[in-house]
Recover the amino acids of this structure.
């Protein structure tokens, strides 16, 4: 049977027409989807600018459904979920991004960082730690190390915190020697006396200007019954860290009285007071003054240099009043008024406390409490 070529001649134009119609339909559908996706995106952006986060999330979900390959929309949606506290949904978005084979290296690193933040905000510290460690050698390494340091401080994992602080120090992220000295002091608090002393001496070498290592080493020596060694430690530390003398004044006074070194202690405290008057240094001088009248006179000297309600109340407590029968009530009112003035205040968050903290209980900042009381700030 002969093949009829007329069918080929008729078929070619028909196939061409059908192909053209199919391409036009595809292009039309693509244009419709491309118009809808930007509209949903800009609508979501508008909601976001107006702080309508629920509507923004709905709009971005619609945009992602229209164009599932757009990574920027996924990042925006994941960040919105995290800000809303919907950490599980944020994790799903960022894990979906990481599962994509077409993601570029930079976007994969960005998604890994976003996933670590999701875990961190959700309080899943072990998973956050694993995610942050994967960012080593990426542009997010510095941020990851800072986040890891916060995790180790929060979990009181001081050896890992010290290791991470060393990496940050080496990478030029700042000077972490003072913070590393605190980590050694924290480890010393739970160590045996010999090991604790070695840790505290390392801390003093690492941060000579820090007050804490010397104070805690002296306290360790006092507990071991060696008041003279404690006194010598505090004297050496006062020379290395003169700004910390207000914090050293009370333990220095106690150690001096226990070791019979009152004269040397008075000399150090007098020199510090002349350079920078301080209530704590003043109290140390008063406690070491053998003559009670001379001791009380120091409060008047302080008032001549600094207006101080605390010093005035201290002086008045030993003074005879014309109406002595009311002295107790007047003194009680003054003591009540001066209590807030003798607190310490965090310079970072304003949290006030009766005692001095090395790490603020409010904002967790280190060394944010000045050595001076509220009245002196």
């Amino acid at each position: 049977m002969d093949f009829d070529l007329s069918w080929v001649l008729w078929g070619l134009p028909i196939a061409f027409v059908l192909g053209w119609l199919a391409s036009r339909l595809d292009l039309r559908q693509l244009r419709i989807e491309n118009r809808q996706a930007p509209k949903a995106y800009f609508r979501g952006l508008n909601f976001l600018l107006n702080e309508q986060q629920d509507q923004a999330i709905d709009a971005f979900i619609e945009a992602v459904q229209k164009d599932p390959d757009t990574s920027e929309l996924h990042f925006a949606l994941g960040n919105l979920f995290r800000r809303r506290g919907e950490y599980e949904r944020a994790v799903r978005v960022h894990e979906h991004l990481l599962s994509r084979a077409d993601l570029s290296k930079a976007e994969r690193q960005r998604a890994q960082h976003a996933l670590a933040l999701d875990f961190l905000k959700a309080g899943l510290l072990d998973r956050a730690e694993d995610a942050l460690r994967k960012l080593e050698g990426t542009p997010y390494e510095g941020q990851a190390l800072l986040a890891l340091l916060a995790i180790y401080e929060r979990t009181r994992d001081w050896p890992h915190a010290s290791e991470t602080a060393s990496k940050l120090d080496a990478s030029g992220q700042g000077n972490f020697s003072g913070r590393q000295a605190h980590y050694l002091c924290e480890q010393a608090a739970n160590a045996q006396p010999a090991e604790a002393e070695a840790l505290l001496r390392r801390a003093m070498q690492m941060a000579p200007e820090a007050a804490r290592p010397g104070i805690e080493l002296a306290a360790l020596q006092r507990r071991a019954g060696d008041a003279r060694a404690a006194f010598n430690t505090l004297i050496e530390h006062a020379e290395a860290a003169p700004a910390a003398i207000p914090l050293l004044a009370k333990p220095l006074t106690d150690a001096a009285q226990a070791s019979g070194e009152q004269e040397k202690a008075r000399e150090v405290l007098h020199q510090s007071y002349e350079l920078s008057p301080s209530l704590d240094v003043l109290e140390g001088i008063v406690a070491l003054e053998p003559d009670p009248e001379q001791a009380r006179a120091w409060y008047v000297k302080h008032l001549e240099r600094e207006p101080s309600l605390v010093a005035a109340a201290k002086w008045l407590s030993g003074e005879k009043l014309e109406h002595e029968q009311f002295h107790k009530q007047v003194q009680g009112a003054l003591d009540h008024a001066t209590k807030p003035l003798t607190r310490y205040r965090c310079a970072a968050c304003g949290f006030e406390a009766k005692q001095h903290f090395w790490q603020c209980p409010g904002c967790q900042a280190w060394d944010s409490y000045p050595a001076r009381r509220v009245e002196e700030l």
